[in-house]
Design goal:
alpha/beta; Isopropylmalate Dehydrogenase; 2 domains; ten-stranded mixed β-sheet; two-stranded antiparallel sheet; 12 strands; 17% strand; Isocitrate_DH_NAD; oxidoreductase activity, acting on the CH-OH group of donors, NAD or NADP as acceptor; IsoPropMal-DH-like_dom
């Protein structure tokens, strides 16, 4: 099934009903149905060097990317970065630069990106560069991994949940206008096609990763048509995955339940705005925005970034940013490229430094600098895996 058009007939238009095909796929062994989750990476070869597009973004993004490059260099990781500086707040914005970034991403298929900050003031165009990148690459699925870090204690320990967000429609559609003076109308777009697509992605992800439950987050009790369509689409897709438990929860109750008892959740799937809010709330459960990795997928491309997107402008140049989230995102990128050894090496080194507790940045209660943390990760690259 093509995620770019999930309702199209497969195999060049063969006359197979969508329901029958999905039922066949859902009943297959995990290794087969799981292959539908996200774009495929090329096989890793001993002599291969992978090209990856790098967009540092704003705020502490450039400092975090410097950390990634230093760790990759120290670990002899076979990745070559094509770096582009794109910003809406630093006079580095132009449609030409945006097209250069898009061309690189389309050629390389894989990118790592910092937050491109969106100004709050209106300057004549509603769609931000972040939004344009998602739309033009059709990066419909944002995946955020919320995991407790070994050795770092929070109110809720041993957390392991995944947030999947549809990020090409919803409230973030850049469709606003002033109907009469002093009255703004902002349109929320929900479609059956994209709702079913993100629901199927969530169930495919749960199948591939051996997870047992998918929870749809909504506000269908109030937005009966828009969120009602999203909820209906999730329920329809859920019927095709009888081995995965399906539940739904209203967004406001979900926020409370995440704070009180997050262990009840496994995989959560939701529309755009709710995902943006829940990403940040969940990040706070395990240490904050500096420790949660994420990525965005289309049918063809994968873009790796921090799970909670903040530029942290107040930390620029102070050498205090926590590179954990970006380094873990980079490790996930290596796994996507089938560089499993290098991925595990980076991930283990980061987690080992945190578990040891000697080098921690300020957001985790320590006094270490960004440079201190990166140096400690480099020193731990070749050690044994974290238990």
């Amino acid at each position: 099934i093509n995620y770019a058009n999930p309702d199209s007939a497969p195999y060049g238009g063969a006359s197979v009903s969508l329901l029958a095909l999905w039922q066949q796929l859902a009943s297959r062994p995990l290794t087969l149905s799981a292959s539908l989750c996200g774009p495929e990476a090329p096989p890793a070869r001993a002599d291969a060097t992978f090209k990856v597009t790098m967009v540092p973004g704003d705020g502490v993004g450039p400092e975090l990317m410097t950390a990634v490059k230093e760790v990759f260099k120290s670990g002899d990781i076979p990745v070559e970065f094509e770096e582009f500086h794109l910003s809406e707040v630093q006079n580095m914005a132009s449609e030409e630069k945006l097209e250069q970034v898009l061309t690189s991403m389309k050629n390389n298929k894989v990118a790592i990106k910092g937050k491109i900050h969106t100004p709050m003031e209106f300057k004549g165009e509603l769609a931000s560069y972040e939004m344009k990148l998602r739309r033009k690459l059709d990066l419909f699925a944002n995946v955020v991994h919320v995991n407790s870090l070994p050795g770092y204690s929070t109110r809720h320990n041993n957390l392991d949940l995944v947030i999947i967000r549809e990020q090409t429609e919803g409230e973030y559609s850049a469709l606003e206008h002033e109907s009469v003076t002093g009255v703004i109308e902002s349109l929320k777009i929900i479609t059956r096609k994209k709702s079913r697509r993100i629901a199927k992605f969530a169930f495919d992800y749960a199948t591939k990763k051996g997870r047992s439950k998918v929870t749809a987050v909504h506000k269908a009790n109030i937005m009966k048509l828009g969120d009602g369509l999203f909820l209906q689409s999730c329920a329809e897709v859920a019927q095709l995955y009888p081995k995965i438990k399906y539940e739904n929860i209203i967004i406001d109750n979900c926020c409370m339940q995440l704070v009180q008892n997050p262990y009840q959740f496994d995989v959560l799937v939701m529309p755009n705005l709710y995902g943006n809010i829940i990403d940040n709330l969940a990040a706070g459960l395990v240490g904050g925005a500096g420790v949660v990795p994420g990525e965005s997928y289309s049918a063809e491309y994968a873009v790796f970034e921090t799970g909670a997107r903040h530029p942290f402008a107040q930390a620029v140049g102070r050498n205090i940013a926590n590179p954990t989230a970006m380094l873990l995102s980079a490790a996930n990128m290596l796994r996507h490229l089938n560089l499993e050894y290098h991925s595990q090496m980076v991930s283990d080194a980061v987690k080992r430094v945190i578990k040891q507790g000697k080098v921690r940045t300020r957001d985790l209660g320590g006094y270490s600098t960004t440079g201190d943390f990166v140096h400690a990760v480099v020193e731990n690259l070749r050690h044994r895996p974290v238990s």
